[in-house]
Predict the structure.
Amino acid sequence: MKISIITINFNNCFGLEKTITSVINQTYKNIEYIVIDGGSMDGSIDIIKQHASGIDYWVSEKDNGIFHAMNKGISKATGEYLLFMNSGDCLINSNVLDTIFSSPLKQDIVYGNVYLIDNESRSTWCPPAKLSFDHFVQSSIPHQASFIKRRLFTKVGLYNEKMKISADWKFFLDAIVRHNCSYTKVEMFIAECEANGLSRKPDNQNLLREEYFQVITNEYAELLFGEYKANFKIASQVKLSRLIALLKKIGFLKNIDIS
């Protein structure tokens, strides 16, 4: 089974080399490795060229953001499953893919756990084995530890390039909740990534909550309100207050004034 691993990078040569090394040192050999660089000027291209023998396709050119770059990688991928390991992310050891794919997998999404690295400390992100709308209202699954069938990007759609931070969260939400895609969790740690990634940076928290709010209220209002199928914008003030109270409770609206 061919696995396409996609790495996107922009001016992060140290993280890029760490990621490339963790991929090309895998004992699992049926890997198609794709690197999408956004026109880096920090020596990243030299790193790519040094490891060119282990990279099947790479490009360095200006893009329109992280999810545009990820979609470019999808367009070049030919593997049955896709894994996104962006610069700075690392597979946990050299035989982790051999372990995961030691027996055939059929589910649309196969995911596991990740370590979050913050300087010298390490915490864990262990999503549940059963996914639901309630889970995605509050969290997601880590793309660094999620193998996605390539055909799913035709069924569900590519990443929404209008979103700046949480398009991967929306993709998983749509795949599991709206399209009822099959999934399974492997109870193992697959990767490690930086704890201060794009979606975790303090400066991005307001935008993250706004993106969650727009998706949940505009596209999943019926799951919040049950019998109330209408868009929340035309719902009564009582229903809207209920929605805002719920989202404040789970933390999306801590610093946002929506009135």
